[in-house]
């Protein structure tokens, strides 16, 4: 089996490397020449745990290749995966499908022999049909099938998620296409991964329904956390108490500064638009989007309140700016709203992130970037944890206290215990838990 992966980003590179680990010969294609050059030199352009070894092993084994030559890669492939970006379109929140359609046109020109064209990018219902139309119009005699195979991996645990997914969703119209997909995912059949075969349209919708449901779940616990603060209850115990109910489930009940990242913000918006246009508005998701947007500003207010009502002229130490740990992805990170709001309120910021600073520097002007967590704290008026990287979970609290001007810690990820922090002499503020004096 040979495949071409069009788009070598977070999804394309991980999926390509994992398929090659399954024994498939994979050619990863990207338009970004510098990305492909780096990969061919053995450098990994993104931070994703375990990816360097996986790429190195499979490239050495002669199963994984990187090129900018889409034509050659597609011509020899049994299946071509489209894994290009589908960001929010400026102005209306719809998914911007220009990269998908441009890729479809290029693929059409290069097809040679029967090929399954698989959309792995997250795309609105109807996109597969449009991809089919573009290919048909460009090459009326091309022998191809279209498939929708959305990806559910999470950055930071992407390899494990791809290799041992909860399920694989495949939307196909023909048995021939289903056969090719079955062959590609054969190793997952062997570990009894549920494979959901359905129509192309349903498969496209499943991805959005999954992401918007998860965004709603996070938003629900965030609002419960706010209520806990007012009522003196503990949101962690609430999450445990409800999560043990199998109908609710334990996961995604951790409160924080609001969801971010390259998927939930754009996918919630895109589904809202799709639903409005279809005449079946998803009011629950419209509300989720609104609550989450406002939450990020509210987190800046929380920091300001913890600093006695004003941060004007104060210096704040910030730990973590990526949207979650174990990734360098800054797309739609809550820090991109929280940090400018604190700057507008007059604070100077000193920040550290283990992997995100390179990207963050471009997006967050005016921040002083430090080499270590402790370096941010020297002479700062308060410490704020925005992203829960493991290395922030066990800070030397005595050292933190001596470095800070005042022992004020705002923990937007609840990685410390209120009681322990009070005993250590901190004025500790977290999310949805009783903050002890
Ligand atoms: P990304 O921006 O990291 O990567 C996209 C890549 O495609 C870029 O390297 C770009 O240069 C390349 N590209 C664009 N047009 C091309 C073309 N015509 N030919 C060759 N290369 C081209 O994006 P991503 O985060 O990997 O996301 C890709 C898709 O997967 C999106 O639809 C996203 O919603 C979905 N998805 C992402 C995640 C995630 O965690 N990032 C998870 C599941 C699904």
Structural write-up:
With 437 residues, the chain is α/β, with parallel strands linked by helices. The chain has 2 domains: 2-198, Rossmann fold; 227-429, Rossmann fold, CATH 3.40.50.720. The chain has helices spanning 10-21, 33-40, 51-60, 70-75, 98-110, 127-138, 158-163, 175-184, 186-190, 200-231, 235-243, 264-277, 283-306, 335-344, 357-363, 373-377, 397-403, 418-423; strands at residues 2-6, 25-29, 64-67, 79-82, 115-119, 144-148, 168-172, 195-198, 315-319, 348-352, 368-369, 382-385, 408-411, 427-429. It has an 8-stranded mixed β-sheet, with helices on both faces. Helix 1 (10-21) packs across helix 3 (51-60) and helix 5 (98-110) runs parallel beside helix 6 (127-138). The protein is globular. The structure holds nicotinamide-adenine-dinucleotide. Nicotinamide-adenine-dinucleotide binds next to helix 1 and helix 5. Nicotinamide-adenine-dinucleotide binds at residues 6-12, 29-32, 35, 70, 83-86, 99, 102-103, 106, 121-122, 151, 153, 155, 262-263.
